[in-house]
Specification:
Helix content is 47%, strand content 15%. By secondary structure, the chain is an alpha/beta fold. It has one domain: 3-Layer(aba) Sandwich (Rossmann fold). Helix 2 packs across helix 9, helix 4 runs parallel beside helix 5 and helix 5 packs parallel to helix 6. The radius of gyration is 18 Å and the shape is globular.
Length: 260
């Protein structure tokens, strides 16, 4: 009885989900979580080898999954992704905008090309995903989009200026797009992870910064990728999340709460 009730609330049976950035550590965990909740998942990214590896991992649990390539730096690539997904499954009900990059340096050393690359990947690509997939979802009568932001959207962090600015903008964009698409029954929310072992974190963290993060996180540890799945299901599930839009959920071990 309890499982049937939870399936009713959080189940994604019959839903088609596209996970942009599903070839990464966090995006891959979310793709697996959606699949285990019953969704037909399209893992999307720039690396076919990693994408197919993720598909095989998901297949071990039984759900349907496949890989489609995308380069989020180009609008037409995202348009082709939607077209291919619709050709394959007939529709797309759920989208996770999870691609992202980072660049760390002292502020006075930030290069224009690095700033532009981070903003384009982390913000412009999210806008394109919301616009392109949101229009499709509105035409089909509804859907749900989850944009991956960051705890750094709320708090300043040293040496990641473009990244923090892009993620703060993603939160604001999410709120505005949620209001715009609500009459079309398309829900748009944002997930803000704290410090997780994703590629961009591994590249910029030294021992001193790890120690500082631990000291300022009440739970005194990094998050594990699967710990993002519960909040993701809440926001994407058509029943449990039916009245949730324009929301921003922090999954950060209490990091942001320390700074209020």
């Amino acid at each position: 009885m309890a499982n049937a009730y939870l399936d009713e609330l959080f189940g994604l049976q019959g839903r088609v989900a596209v996970v942009i950035g599903g070839t990464g550590v966090l995006g891959g965990a979310l793709a697996l979580g959606l699949a285990r909740a019953g969704a037909m998942v399209i893992v999307s990214g720039r690396d076919p080898a990693r994408g197919e590896e993720r598909v095989r991992e998901i297949a071990g649990y039984g759900p349907t999954a496949s890989f489609l390539p995308v380069d989020v730096m180009h609008r037409e690539s995202i348009e082709k992704l939607l077209a291919a997904a619709v050709e394959r499954h007939g529709r797309v009900d759920l989208l996770i905008n999870g691609a992202g990059v980072n660049s760390a340096s002292a502020y006075l050393d930030v290069k224009d090309e690095d700033w532009d690359r981070v903003i384009d990947s982390n913000l412009k690509a999210v806008h394109w995903g919301c616009q392109i997939f949101g229009a499709h979802m509105g035409e089909q009568g509804g859907g749900s989009i989850l944009n991956i932001a960051s705890a750094s959207a709320h708090l300043p962090l040293s040496r990641v200026f473009a990244y923090s600015a892009s993620k703060a903008a993603v939160v604001n964009l999410t709120q505005n797009v949620a209001r715009e698409l609500a009459p079309m029954r398309v829900r748009v929310n944002a997930l803000c992870p704290g410090f997780f072992p994703a590629e961009q974190n591994r590249k910029i963290l030294d021992a001193t910064r790890v120690e500082n993060i631990m000291r300022n996180t009440p739970m005194a540890r990094f998050g594990e990728p699967q710990e993002l799945v519960g909040a993701t299901l809440l926001m994407l599930a058509p029943v449990a999340g039916s009245f949730i839009t324009g929301a921003t959920y922090y999954v950060d071990g209490g990091f942001t709460a320390m700074r209020f």
